[in-house]
Amino acid sequence: MEIEVKSQIGDELVLVVRDVEVPFINAIRRTAMMDVPKIAIDDVNIIRNDSAMFNEVLAHRLGLTPLVSDLEAIDGMEVADECDCGDGCSKCGVSFSLNAVGPKTVYSKDLISSDSKIKPVYDTIPLVKLKEGEELKIEAVAKLGFGKDHAKWIPTTVCAYKQYPEITFNEDVEIDYDCADACPRGILKADKRSKKIKVLDIENCSMCKSCYRASENKYINIGYQDNNFIFKIETDGSMPPKEVLLKACEELELKADKFIRFSEGGSK
What's the rounded Cα separation, in Å, for the pair 120 and 117? Predict the structure, then answer.
């Protein structure tokens, strides 16, 4: 297996992974989405809500507000179901409070955390609008959880792969420059001086085959490389994409080891 980092900008990481099969790359994708722990608001106690927004909708918005969940922030925390405290403690939960009086727009920055490391990733997420005299008072608890249990614990906004595109030309027929103009992403350029069609950015090819359909003599062919993939992972800012990827690989390794031990000895 060969891995090449194509770009790493902000919360987005793009890799080219070569010499692997679909089940392997898909297992990493699913593990990154479902089995990497992240913090999200889970319990909401709405003491007072004079706004026009229903309590359930407001609680849902709070749950989907991204909280800082990198390795430093969650160090020492435990998943609530695995904690032996029984009813919530500082090891498995972080308390938040929100007190606001209108007129104002309540933003994510108005959430006050009991742990300075765990706070909303973005300060400008609008939560609710209060009119003159309206009051909002909330107490909430954020917990560590997994995407397989609820979407609010999924650390990624994009986690996908595609097989590496492959573009070839049929040299036995006349060059068809029209196929270059048909490409919706502009990755093909007709160079009539050199009598060639140049491929500018093959990794941006979506394999839509618009160029193939536009070529009457089938001058161009669109395919893909079986065991090479472009893998893209983007997070909501709660965790760096590299941390998500490494944690996913670690979890996948643990699952594989557990399966091997079960197969060999029958122990769980």
Answer: 10
Of 83, 63, 81, 12, give the one whose Cα is nearest residue 232: 12
SS3 call for 126: strand
Same domain? For 123 and 21 the reply is no
The range of the structural domain enclosing residue 30 comes to 2-34+157-166+201-232
Confidence of residue 220 (pLDDT cuts 50, 70, 90): very high
Contacts of 202 (CB under 8 A, 6+ apart): 165, 166, 167, 187
115 and 161 share one domain? no
Q: Is residue 73 part of a domain?
A: yes
**What does DSSP say about strands 38-49 and 2-9: parallel, antiparallel, or unpaired?**
unpaired
Judge whether residue 248 has pLDDT over 60: yes
What pLDDT is stored for residue 88 in this prediction? 61
